[in-house]
Amino acid sequence: MSLIRVVSYNIHKGRSLGGRDSLSDLRLGLHGLRPDLMFLQEVQGRNEKHGSLHMQHEFLAAALHMDCAYGCNAVRDRTDHGNALLSRHPILSFENQDISDHRLEQRGLLHGVINVGGREVHCFVVHLGLFAASRIRQIEVMIERIRRMVPDGAPMLIAGDFNDWKDRLAPLFVQQLGVYEVFAHAPRTHGTMPKLRESIQQLRGVLRGESQQQIREAMFRRQSYHINQLGMEGTNNLMPAPRTFPSAFPWLRLDRIYQRGFAVRSARVLRGRPWTQLSDHAPILAELELP
């Protein structure tokens, strides 16, 4: 069994919400998370204006001793940016597919295959469009690629900035791909106060002489009936993904990690300092077990 720490983060081209160069501080913050796998968006591969912001994926990968793959999406006169996959496990192959839906937005889908304990895990880094119709078409392109290139039942991770603030895409992922958002299966959404019912359940377990592990397992079984799955007629019911944007006061639910073939040990949004000073998005950190 392999335990991996997965981070999904829109790094805002290495600048804070206020426009300050935050790449060096970002490196330190990510190092402290001890990530095994990172799905990064708005990464600058080229910056001829400011050398300190050039080749950000290689800068972070070297500092964290990780393999890296970069997919260039948006090309400007003296800069470009896109998605990046960083991994402590070997990256066996990768390809960036253009999924731009119109001329106003350049979007790409970075598909990498990594080796985790002898098993191939397919990883997709995404940053979807700002328009709902575009996002639907981009997801359809991704679904077609997955059906064509990913073996049935193979472990898979899809993470990034989905711009899906109304949570409309989750049913498509469940119906078409059998993947689920990590907070749907996490034993608890970290960073929130426990509900009164949960506190009472924990107290009852203590009074019965149960161990903390037994209490957590019992709570997980109860919560498994209330996860972000499909309802009777394909409707997506129950709790939405957590808020991640803007980082200083998260209000919109933009960022996600979807998984297939993993057990979710924990999932949380990282709020407060230093994250409010590093990007306009808050990162997501999940601990996943690959049986």
TrEMBL record:
Keywords: Endonuclease, Hydrolase, Nuclease. Residues 7-281 form the Endonuclease/exonuclease/phosphatase domain. Transmembrane segments: none annotated. One of its GO terms (molecular function) is endonuclease activity. One of its GO terms (cellular component) is membrane. One of its GO terms (biological process) is GPI anchor biosynthetic process. InterPro entries: Endo/exonu/phosph_ase_sf, Endo/exonuclease/phosphatase, GPI-anchor_lipid_remodeler. This is Endonuclease.
